[in-house]
Amino acid sequence: QVQLVESGGGLVQPGGSLRLSCTASGSGFIINAMGWYRQAPGKQRELVAGITTSGTTNYADSVKGRFTISRDNAKNTVYLRMNSLKPEDTAVYYCYAKPILSSQYWGQGTQVTVSS
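The chain above was modelled as a monomer; its predicted structure follows.
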């Protein structure tokens, strides 16, 4: 089993920044990829950013140039630096981890609110 713990959400003004963190723990797994989805009220959950253990990254078009994902493989931890935040970025952000040859796991979610 894999457990994911997220942190870093909060309230920020438009144009501000936040950094999210997510750490995977457990035993008997090898992580292939980690990242974040987000879900706003009334909308479907969407992929924000992902990164593999080899460093390959993927971003939603709406966040390219503003968000940066990075990882520390030794700690099974990923980080999401969010700059130039917009009100439309407001959502619950869910960390995910995909072990090789196993189903995807989800974090508990952390609220990000961008408002003046």
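The CA atoms of residues 70 and 86 lie 21 Å apart.
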